[in-house]
Each structure stands twice: as C-alpha cells, then as structure tokens.
C-alpha cells in the first residue's frame, strides 16, 4: 500500500509539474509536506533536503558565480568573442563554444548565459545577424560544458549527493571529465557543422532597430489635446487616462519642448502632443470620449520613430525575465511596473509570440522579453536588478573590475582544493563564499540575491521524494519490474533505455526531478543484474542535463527562447538529432571509459 501511495503522489507531482499550476519549487515543497502528512517520511527526513550537502553546495556555487559576474571577470573573456568571432556562422559558433563551453564546467551555466546573451545580441545587431542563429547554440554549448565537472550544474551536484546517500560515495570533481570532454567535443562539432543548416532566421535587426523588430509603428502614435478636451487642466494621474484605457503615455511635447517620464503630475494644456502606446481601437475610444485628435500615421517614418523614442534623456531597451525573478506570475498592473522601475512596457515577446495589447493584464513568465521605454538613467539602473536582465552591453562602470583577479583566484582556489581533495567541495565552496564577501567581490546584501532560491527549494522538496521511494520500497519495486521486462537486454541497451527515459522525463519536468526519481531505480537495476551502479548513475546524470528538444526542458533554453524569437518546434528540429547522437554514443562511451 505504501508503494502505490508513494507512486500515486509522484504521479500527482508529475501532473502538477507539467500543468504548471504552481511554480515547480512550490510543487516540490507541497509534495514534501504531503509525504510528511501521510507519514511516508518522518519530519526530520522531510526537511532533510534543506540541510543536504548537495543543496548547500549548489547554493554556494550560485554565490561564487555571482562573484565572478559582479566583478566583470567573465566580461574579460566575452570580449574575446567579439575579437575572434568573425562573420561566418561556423566560426562564430566554434568561437562561442570554445570560450563559453569550458567556463560552464566551473561556473553555473545560467550565469554564463546571462553574461554572454547581451554580448551575442549586441554582436548580432552590429553585424546584422539573426540572433536565432547563435542563441540556441549558446544555450546548448553551456549545457554540454556543464557536464565537464561535478560542479558544472546543480544536477551533477545533486547526483553526487544521491550517490553518497546510496553508499557509493560522492563524485570527485573530475570523475566524469573524460566523458564530459568527449561529449562536449562531439556536441560542438554537431553545432558547428550541422546546426547552422537547421537553425531558423527568426529575427534580424534592421536599420529601424528594435522599433521595427517589434513593429511599433502600429502601436506608438501621437495624439493632440484639443481646446475642448476634458483632459485640459487635468493631470495625467487625475485624468485616469492610463488606468481606464489600454494606453501608456510615453512623452509629452509642448511648444517643441519634450517632457519625459515621470508625467503623472503634469497638467495638460490645449495643443499638447502626447506620444502614446496604444492599439488602433483604443485610440478611437480615447478620441471619442476625451476629444483628442490622432495625428496621421505618416508623421512617423520608421527611423523618426526610433529617434523619437531614443534621445539624450530617454531610450528603449529589452530586458529578460530571469528564472529567479519575483515578477513571475504577476501582471504589470498588479506590481505597478511603471512606478517601480520608472519605465513603460511597450511590448512583450514570448518566443515567437509578440504581445502588444492589454499588456497590464498579462501574467509574466520566465523567459519573457520586455521592451521598455523610459529615462536612460532608469534603464541604466536595471543593470543591477535581480529580477531583470538588460539585453545589451553592460556599462563596465557598474562592475567591480578591480576585484576581477581576486574573484578568479578565489574560484580557482575552490576548484583546486576540491580537485586535490584538500577540502570537500562543500567546505571549499563555502570558504570561497566567505572570501568573496571579505575581499569585497560581493557585498553582504548581494549574497542573498545571488542565490536561485527556486532551485534551492526545488532540491529541498525533491530529496524527501527519493527518501519516500526508498522507505516504501517503491524504488525496489520499480527496479524489479524493469529487470523482469528488460533483463534479457544487453548492458548497452539497458543504459540506452535509461538514457532515453531520463531525457524524456527531463523534457517535461526539471532535470533535478529526473535525477531524484530515476537514479536510485537505475542503481537497483544495476545491482540486480550485477552491473556497475556507477555506469548507470552516470548515464542518468548526463541524460538529465542533456535537454535540447524543448525551450522548457532546461533553464538556459528558456533564457534564449524569447530573445531569439524562436518557435517551440525550433528546439526539436535542432535538438532532436543532437539528443539522438548523445543517446547512441554516451552509453558506449560509459562502458568503454568506466566499464560495466
């Protein structure tokens, strides 16, 4: 009964993960509470994930990655991309892969993509290259590079912790580096030689810049306040013009003088010209109800619109909603976005979808790209935001460049201490965190903002699920049934089956959930058939991170989904062949390198 109850909870969790009714970390916590309530785990076992070495190690690695990024150490490396990239797609992807890929073996890959994404976007804009030709390869090379060491991804760290709990010891820092380097080389070769033929050309920056990319000419207009308008003598706030209509006032022009935001307390006069973001239907309602005139469309040529939105005082910029953002799930209206950031959202890009109407009521998602317009100082301030990533070259003045060498030295010290087993990786990583703060690479307040708390809570909630499977006998039951069904298969085909099963689970769940569910089962199958448990742990660990077929299977895929203007199936077209190649070669490489 306990077995089926545990499996029933896991199935319920899978449905919730897929349905996304709650964030995945909250779903994991809810499962943890349910397991404790039904006494499938003890309270101590239920909260053990928060004190698990894997959870704490992952938290420390997030902070170390932030120290590297905040000091501009990675900016020094990203400059090489602009210098050596050239103009041919093959050379560009190869250069990007050789620079960004190995870095992710030691620094969290979401942090690497966060640094390189603005660089690649700017590079594409200057050379009139479609970002869709490079952003997906950027995500894929960081995924492949993250498998070079045990600390490359949170999945690897979690798998190492599970291995230790199962009695096989934690993975050493470079335990599967040989396999990681080979698969990275094969994957990069595919991305360089084959992927350019499959990658779409979704979005190319034209001479009209982002205003043409987002087709703003249809949604940015000029209206004139007539002498008889009800708006005359009222402030923007009291007129409730923005609250009652799907309309945003971007700028006020009076006698050739331009007044930028904030405009809430500006009193309207007859003859004032307002530059507004609004659809055609809404403008007609405003004209009818507030007696304003709509200036002819021809007044804005495309380039003049770009010039109008960009000036010495105001500008436009794209920002990405990060996975750890507090804005996820909220609407622009609920969070009072304009007041909070002193900037107006002109459009939202969600993959290939472009949203330009009723923006205030759209719940934001991870990976959404917002096109903002506002004072340049407000846009510049977004560079330090924990919720938004400014897609554009960062102002190096906001980085602690004088601390870059110190941050690199600390990170190298953490790696070397773990590699030579001077200290366990948990201890060396925490020591590195302390040194980052003591040396000024990070300010104390930045430590908490650097942690991806959604990942920490996800890990803490998932670990009791694995304990419940073991306590109830569900792990052994699944393993026995798999042995009964596939016991006649060779070791290679068993590894291949586990690889494919893990990849499929990862594409709809998180990679961490896949490891928690399948790694213990794989170990039990290996023990039952007298095969190497290490080989089965490696195949599940690699498969869980090698998510290439959907934009939601891995966080870096979601990060490039909007900026690249991709469609959902673009990832399947480029990622499926790579997934197939990995499914065929990784089991053979594991047998060859580590035995079976």
How would you describe what is shown here?
This protein is α+β, with helices and mostly antiparallel strands and 596 residues long. Among the domains are: 62-206 and 399-452, no CATH class; 210-309, 2-Layer Sandwich (Alpha-Beta Plaits); 316-398, Regulator of K+ conductance, C-terminal domain (Alpha-Beta Plaits), CATH 3.30.70.1450. Helices cover 57% and strands 9% of the residues. The chain is built from 28 helices and 10 strands. It has helices spanning 2-19, 24-37, 43-46, 53-70, 73-84, 89-103, 109-127, 135-145, 154-165, 177-193, 195-198, 210-213, 236-239, 241-244, 280-290, 302-309, 337-341, 376-381, 404-419, 425-438, 444-450, 453-472, 474-486, 491-508, 511-528, 533-545, 555-561, 568-594; strands at residues 220-225, 247-254, 257-259, 273-278, 292-294, 314-321, 344-350, 353-355, 369-375, 388-391. It has a 5-stranded antiparallel sheet. A 5-stranded antiparallel sheet has the order 8-7-9-6-10. Strand 2 and strand 3 (257-259) form a beta hairpin. The longest helix has 27 residues, at 568-594. It is elongated. It starts with a helix and ends with a helix.
């Amino acid at each position: 009964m306990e077995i089926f109850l545990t499996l029933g909870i896991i199935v319920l969790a899978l449905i919730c993960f897929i349905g996304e009714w709650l964030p995945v970390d909250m779903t994991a916590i809810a499962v943890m509470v349910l397991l404790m309530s039904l006494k499938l785990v003890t309270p101590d076992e239920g909260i053990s994930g928060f004190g698990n070495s894997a959870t704490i190690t992952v938290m420390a690695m997030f902070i170390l990655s932030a120290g590297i990024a905040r000091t501009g150490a990675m900016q020094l490396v990203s400059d090489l991309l602009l210098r050596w990239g050239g103009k041919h797609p093959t050379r560009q992807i190869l250069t990007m892969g050789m620079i960004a890929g190995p870095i992710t073996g030691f620094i969290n890959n979401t942090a690497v993509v966060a640094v390189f994404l603005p660089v690649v976007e700017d590079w594409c804009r200057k050379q009139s290259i479609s970002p869709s030709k490079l952003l997906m390869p950027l995500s894929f090379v960081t995924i492949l590079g993250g498998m070079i060491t045990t600390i490359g991804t949170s999945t690897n760290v979690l798998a190492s912790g599970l291995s230790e709990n199962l009695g096989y010891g934690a993975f050493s820092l470079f335990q599967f580096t040989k396999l990681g380097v080979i698969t990275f080389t094969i994957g990069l070769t595919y991305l360089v030689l084959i992927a350019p033929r499959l990658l779409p050309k979704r979005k190319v920056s034209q001479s009209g810049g982002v205003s043409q990319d987002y087709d703003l000419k249809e949604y940015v207009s000029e209206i004139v306040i007539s002498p008889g308008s009800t708006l005359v003598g009222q402030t923007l706030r009291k007129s409730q013009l923005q609250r009652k209509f799907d309309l945003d006032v971007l700028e006020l022009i009076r006698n050739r003088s331009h007044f930028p935001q904030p405009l809430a307390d500006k009193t309207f006069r007859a003859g004032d010209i307002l530059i507004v973001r609004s659809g055609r239907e809404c403008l007609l309602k405003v004209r009818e109800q507030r007696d304003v005139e709509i200036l002819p469309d021809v007044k804005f040529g495309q380039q003049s619109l770009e010039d109008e939105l960009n000036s010495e005082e105001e500008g436009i910029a794209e920002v990405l909603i990060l996975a750890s953002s507090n804005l996820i799930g909220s609407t622009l209206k609920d969070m009072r976005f304009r007041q909070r950031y002193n900037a107006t959202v002109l459009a939202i890009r969600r993959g290939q979808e472009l949203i330009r109407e009723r923006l205030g009521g759209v719940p934001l998602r991870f990976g959404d790209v917002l096109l903002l317009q506002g004072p340049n100082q407000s846009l510049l301030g977004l560079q330090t935001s924990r919720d938004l990533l400014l897609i554009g070259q960062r102002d190096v003045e906001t980085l602690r460049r004088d601390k870059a060498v110190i941050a690199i030295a600390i990170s190298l010290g953490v790696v070397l201490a773990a590699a030579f087993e001077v200290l366990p990786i948990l201890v060396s990583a925490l020591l590195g965190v302390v040194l980052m703060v003591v040396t000024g690479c990070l300010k104390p307040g930045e430590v908490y903002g650097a942690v991806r708390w959604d990942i920490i809570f996800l890990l803490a909630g998932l670990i009791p699920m694995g304990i419940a499977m073991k306590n109830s006998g569900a792990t052994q039951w699944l393993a026995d049934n798999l042995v009964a069904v596939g016991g006649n298969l060779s070791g290679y085909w068993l590894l291949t089956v586990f690889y494919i099963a893990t990849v499929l689970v990862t594409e709809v769940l998180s990679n961490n959930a896949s490891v928690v569910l399948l790694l213990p089962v794989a170990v039990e199958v290996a023990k039952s058939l007298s095969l190497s448990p290490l080989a089965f742990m490696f195949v599940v660990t690699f498969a869980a991170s090698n998510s290439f077929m959907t934009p939601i299977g891995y966080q870096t895929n979601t990060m490039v989904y909007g900026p690249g203007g991709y469609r959902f199936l673009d990832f399947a077209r480029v990622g499926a062949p790579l997934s197939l190649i990995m499914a065929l070669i990784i089991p053979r490489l594991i047998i060859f390198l580590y035995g079976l």
